Fold this sequence. Notes:
Blueprint: H1 2-20, H2 24-30, H3 33-48, H4 55-84, H5 89-100, H6 105-131, H7 144-191, H8 203-212, H9 214-229, H10 236-246, H11 256-266, E1 270-271, E2 274-276, E3 279-281, E4 285-286, H12 295-327
Antiparallel strand pairs: 1-4, 2-3
Helix pairs in contact: 1-5, 1-7, 1-12, 3-4, 3-7, 4-5, 4-7, 6-7, 6-12, 7-8, 7-9, 7-11, 7-12, 9-10, 9-11, 9-12, 10-11
Pathway: Cofactor biosynthesis; adenosylcobalamin biosynthesis
Subcellular location: Cell membrane
Family: Belongs to the CobD/CbiB family.
Amino acid sequence: xxxxxxxxxxxxxxxxxxxxxxxxxxxxxxxxxxxxxxxxxxxxxxxxxxxxxxxxxxxxxxxxxxxxxxxxxxxxxxxxxxxxxxxxxxxxxxxxxxxxxxxxxxxxxxxxxxxxxxxxxxxxxxxxxxxxxxxxxxxxxxxxxxxxxxxxxxxxxxxxxxxxxxxxxxxxxxxxxxxxxxxxxxxxxxxxxxxxxxxxxxxxxxxxxxxxxxxxxxxxxxxxxxxxxxxxxxxxxxxxxxxxxxxxxxxxxxxxxxxxxxxxxxxxxxxxxxxxxxxxxxxxxxxxxxxxxxxxxxxxxxxxxxxxxxxxxxxxxxxxxxxxxxxx
Length: 328
């Protein structure tokens, strides 16, 4: 019964978030769950990450910070779910709306589409401005093809960790599962970097984020492959081949799966050497197609993304129906 409720919540959350997103006025008024989690991470970083401590002690402090973050976030989500589920359909609907705030289908589409629009309307400068909102690399180092590839790579990777992963953990563990995942992923993005301040303290967050993203990254690649089979001009066969050949060659244990699938499906090369700040990061290419991506390729990627999101919704709804029938 608990699993069927989680899957029903997932199905409703995906539909609600795709339809409405997160209203900008609400963000201005109260912020967003991720910003609340971010404030907690900042406080833990400020209070527990002492530069005078040894590397080992700072790593241990990072483990403690992650445990505190997960404990607080999970407890709040568990209490909310426990209060809402007994209310019935109205409580389930509210729970789905809350869970939908942890999924980013609509906002990801808008941000990536803005890059294509920027390139078409304002040329390279417009594309650079738009892509700077979604990637960490230096936009001034990117030509038009680099901007387009960066947007498509961001779409593929964020489809995995911004949509499929929270959806996976929501379906498996309800609101607490999705909230715990989102806390982990936010911690990785804030402190999981190999910088002098965070190499030790952020180690636990980075490694745990790698672990919890493993199933979703593989599922994302599968969704992109199936979506490619439904699109004229995309290749499911090449997507599958790129995943098998390239995904494990990526410097990230997870990002290579959706990026390789997207690259193969669209006949592109993604990833490869990239500049973050002033640092050149060497990475393997995903896919063996052309590197000269354009605004049109971003729009092709978005079409695949929309189909893959529909497939995810169908999978969630079908699983919810099966779980409900079994629980009867």
